[in-house]
Amino acid sequence: MLGQTRLLTLTGTGGVGKTRLAVQAAEALRGAFAHGAELVELAPLEDGDLLESAVATALGLREQGPCSMTTLVDYLADRRMLLVLDNCEHLLEECALLVDRMLRGAPRLRILATSRQALGVYGEQVLHVPPLTTSDPGEAVRDIARHDAVRLFAERAARARPGFTVDAANAATVARLSQRLEGIPLAIELAAVRLRTTPVEQLLRELDEHFEAPVEGARSALPRHRSLRATLDWSFGLCSPAEQRLWSRLSMFAGGVELEAAEAICPGAESEKEDIQKEDIQKEDVVDLIAGLVDKSVLIATERDTGVYYRMLDSIRSYGREELSPAEVRALGRRYVEYYRGEVERHRLDRLSPHQLVGFRALQRELPNLRVALDLCFGRAGEASVGLEIASALWVFWIIAGSLTEGRHWLDRGLRLVPEANSARAHALWVDSLLALHQGDLKTALPQLEECQILARRLGDESALAFATQVSGIAAFSAGEPRRGLALLEGARAGHLACGDVDAAAINRFYAAAYGAAEAPELSITLGDWFLALSDARGAQLSRGYALFALGMAAWNQGDWRRAEALMREAAELRNMLNDRWGLTQCLEVLAWTACAQGRYERAATILGTAHPLWRAMGASPTRLFPHVRGHEQCMARAHEELGGRAFAAAFRQGARLGLKRTIMYAIEGDDGE
């Protein structure tokens, strides 16, 4: 069907296996698409306004323009790839609009979506994913064992009780079980794990008894929806009261959970006895309760570098959320926000420390849960200022992760809810302005900076005033006023030091070194060397990459292309480790210039070609960025003149077709056969 349509939607009841089928299809077909297959999981995303930004980020795109949709369409425009959008049903209208615009703008793109109902987009083909085939208890043992539902039950049962097989003694019972569960894979898996403690005959009796009872709220549901709901009710009833409470509380975590977070948020607290039951979960019990839920297939344990991560399938998580009482939501919400506020503070990327890479990856991993925390803040009275503080503290993360639109979404939402004059609003204003400048949105940034400065002076908030001055300096560079920009950055640096904020003063030196390289290269080298030395002294790898880039720009503007090339290659390697497409693209741009300076014009044209789709994907251009304009135009003109129009165009096209991995090998490692 994917060979006959550009949009195929897999529909079916919850737990029927739509996601697993889509993932398997994508893996099998990856090699048939020149640009591969990509999976975007939408289940953790609860805010439709973030859909475009989330898909762009999942594809590794750095948002540089104010419109994520434009970034997506430009990136996908000439790509032949398969995009899997998993779990669209809770954002149906937003997904339909997104899919329609992507398909119109990217003629070689094919989309495989999973949803409980069709998207309703023109040209969509729908494939209903049926339950697994079940068998008649009266069939021969050999025939019973061939049916898919029985095969899945037998496979999962053998994991729960090693040695289990379908034989003459139990075949009819297993057949009736598969019929009772209506061939729904999730229901079968939940039932099979019970064989650890329950004989198969007793398991069938328990299911029969439970399914004969009316299922609350299921009168109008489809039969198989009732079947899954009844299975979840049954599984929930088989859990201990403590396991039930933990199941429902863990459903708050959109992106899965580590043991430390579960222990901090899910137990009861003495001060909250009015909100949570007296006989509640204790912190020391959480690890054993989690183990019990893993044994019952309620939680899936995944090994990661940082430890074990626990997650729920979407149907199981949705069930758990329904079981949360309003009192639990209030009490857990307070602890949830406080915990993730602490995590954001612990992993701040605007501090030069040896934990920057670990912190960045932790924030990437926890982003779905951070969204829940921000949503809780902005959805409850009195917490919006806390949400603004969290969103503002993530300012470096929004930039490095390429999530500029998402960062502005949360900041704008909070600023609307916090009109009063306080420090949370003041800091949110300069952060929002900075993100707007990175997207070329001077029209929004300048009024916000003016308000921030007025507010900071009224509050006596010298830190907010220093940052507002710093962002004003960056705005001056964007407006083509480099001398004024350097002066403002110098004034901001004095303000940071007066506040005792050494880290802010250090990052200020990076901005002055990188943006001022063309205007004052010697000053840029002095500031860049200082920033590099501090980064190395503190083991701050992320900051080191930015220091190398600033020094490379200064070396280029001094005419030392050999040093510029060496610095840019090293900077690019560090930025590639972070999947920082914005930083990597800037490094590639300068590496094209250094190739041109060596007389390697074909290589220069090829690297310009490799950078071109990356620039376009970000909604940016080196012709609109102050540090890059002159070098880019000179490189293009020289390479075109030396090679001739036809040869230049051929090398440029070859670079554009390389793909990211081969681009890195070619440009950074020098893998060009020379």
In short:
With 674 residues, the protein is mainly alpha-helical. The protein has helices at residues 18-29, 51-58, 68-76, 92-105, 141-146, 148-160, 171-180, 185-192, 200-212, 223-238, 241-250, 259-265, 286-295, 314-322, 326-346, 356-379, 384-393, 395-400, 404-417, 423-438, 442-459, 462-478, 482-498, 502-515, 521-538, 541-557, 561-577, 581-597, 601-617, 629-643, 645-656, 660-667, and strands at residues 7-11, 37-41, 82-86, 110-114, 125-128, 257-258, 300-304, 307-311.
Keywords:
mainly alpha, three-stranded antiparallel β-sheet, about 675 residues, five-stranded parallel β-sheet, single chain
Into which percentage range does the β-strand content fall?
5-15%
Please tally the helical runs, counting DSSP H or I stretches of 4 or more residues: 32
**What is the alpha-carbon Rg in Å?**
28 Å
Helical residue percent band: 55-70%
Span of the ends, CA to CA: 45 Å
The counted number of beta strands is: 8
Task: Outline the biggest β-sheet.
Answer: 5 strands, parallel
The strand order across the widest sheet is: 2-3-4-1-5
Mean pLDDT: 89
Question: Could you explain the architecture of this structure?
Answer:
This protein has 674 residues and is mainly alpha-helical. It is built from 32 helices and 8 strands. Helix 28 runs antiparallel to helix 29. The longest helix has 24 residues.
